Amino acid sequence: MDMSSKGKMSRRDLMKAAIFSIGGLIGASIGLPAIGYIVGPALKQAAEVWIRLGTVSKVKLDDPTLFKTIVETQTGWINTQEEISAYVLTTDGKDFAALSNVCTHLGCRVRWIAEEGKFFCPCHDGVFAKDGTVISGPPPRPLDRFQTKVEDGILFIKRG
């Protein structure tokens, strides 16, 4: 800044400083939230999400039982609903295994055929055993498993 011999700031220098300061404030007020918006999701830690399926009394011993539930998620201003389905199996009424009902081949829904003791995928004739392992057909891997927990007689699966 150009200072005159008397130590005073010229009008031009004062205007330059004021414009620079105002521009800096405007830039910071827009830039800092934008940086937070971009970097924020990467810094968030994934929260454990447990989905309530229902009471354990509904699960038949040694027979996969289908549970369906609706899960609402909010991303920003967008609310979405998703149906989560899982077959739950127990042999002793204490330990539970939850299998996805989505075929690992192309994502079709599998169904339990009790008479044959197998899961069938109607799309390409994929066949899965009671424990979710592939018996025949094109599925590349077993049915996905959910982690389970029981609290006060209510069965939960972990999303993820």
Produce the secondary structure layout.
Layout: H1 11-43, E1 50-55, E2 65-75, E3 78-89, E4 97-100, E5 111-113, E6 118-121, E7 126-128, E8 134-136, E9 145-146, E10 148-151, E11 154-158
Antiparallel strand pairs: 1-11, 2-3, 3-4, 4-9, 5-6, 6-7, 7-8, 10-11
Structural features, described:
The protein has 160 residues and is α+β, with helices and mostly antiparallel strands. It folds into 2 domains: 1-44; 50-158, Rieske Iron-sulfur Protein (3-layer Sandwich), CATH 2.102.10. The protein has 1 helix and 11 strands. Strand 5 (111-113) and strand 6 form a beta hairpin. The longest helix is centred in the N-terminal third of the chain and has 33 residues, at 11-43. The protein is elongated and about 100 Å long.
Descriptive keywords:
Rieske Iron-sulfur Protein; 1 helix; 160 residues; alpha+beta; 4-stranded antiparallel beta sheet
Radius of gyration (CA) equals 29 Å
Main sheet, how many strands, which sense, barrel? 4 strands, antiparallel
CATH superfamily of the largest domain: Rieske [2Fe-2S] iron-sulphur domain
CATH topology of the largest domain: Rieske Iron-sulfur Protein
> How would you sum up the global shape?
elongated
What's the helical proportion of residues?
Answer: 10-25%
- CATH architecture verdict of the largest domain: 3-layer Sandwich
Secondary-structure element order, as H and E?
Answer: HEEEEEEEEEEE
Distance between the termini: 59 Å
> Low-confidence parts lasting 5 or more residues at pLDDT below 50?
none
Strand content: 35-45%
Question: How many β-strand stretches?
Answer: 11
Quaternary organisation of the protein chains: single chain
Count of domain modules? 2
Provide the CATH top-level class of the largest domain.
Mainly Beta
